[in-house]
Design a protein that fits this description.
This protein is α/β, with parallel strands linked by helices. It has a single domain, classed as HUPs (Rossmann fold). It contains six helices and seven strands, in the order E-E-E-H-E-H-E-H-E-H-E-H-H. Helix 2 packs antiparallel against helix 6. The model has no long low-confidence stretch (mean pLDDT about 95). The protein binds 4'-phosphopantetheine. 4'-phosphopantetheine binds next to strand 3 and helix 4.
């Protein structure tokens, strides 16, 4: 982004579990890509929790779903998000909001992150209406019961889940 001759390289992190990556995640990511020079999707590695996909599988799937976005890269991190953000010199953390009920958790996390790293700003982006009810846990549940997840997740994710 260039403003009055000054060049900023604004890096935003888009953190989450992404288990799996949904159309809702893609929607937020595409919005973030229009606002920041570069967006790093950062997958949180939680060693005490086994997910549906491993973090490496999630990384490969997100890469497969974001080939059309030239300013995106995908990374896995372990530990505190703000430590990772400072290490990467990121200026912002992007989080998606679907509905009011998301806000309580997001509000607490944003304040905690701000206390730990005041230089990193949390930016909330509203999801498109079509994705307001989409969540990774809902997708896993529909899949577990044999339902059709094709309207919730990009094709590479649908195929990978079907192969399980
Ligand atoms: O998609 P999610 O599960 O809502 O993502 C939550 C995530 C991964 C962003 C959050 O749990 C996280 O940042 N985990 C890493 C540990 C950390 O920094 N926690 C926040 C301290 S308030």
């Amino acid at each position: 982004m260039t403003t009055k001759g000054l060049t900023h390289n604004e890096l935003a992190l888009y953190p989450g579990s992404f288990d799996p990556f949904t159309f809702g995640h893609l929607d937020i990511l595409e919005r973030a890509c229009r606002l920041f020079d570069h967006v790093e999707v950062t997958i949180a590695q939680n060693s005490s929790k086994t997910g549906f996909f491993s973090t490496e599988e999630r990384k490969a799937l997100i890469e497969a779903c974001t080939g059309h976005l030239s300013n995106v890269s995908v990374h896995v991190f372990e530990g505190l998000l703000v430590h990772h953000a400072s290490q990467r010199n990121a200026t912002a953390l992007v989080r998606g909001l679907r509905q009011v009920s998301d806000f309580d958790y997001e509000f607490r996390m944003a304040f905690a992150n701000r206390r730990l790293a005041p230089e990193v700003e949390t930016v909330f982006l509203m999801t498109g209406e079509a994705h307001a009810l989409t969540s990774a846990s809902l997708v896993r549940e529909i899949h577990r019961h044999g339902g059709d997840i094709s309207s919730f997740v990009p094709e590479p994710v649908r195929q990978a889940m079907a192969a399980r």
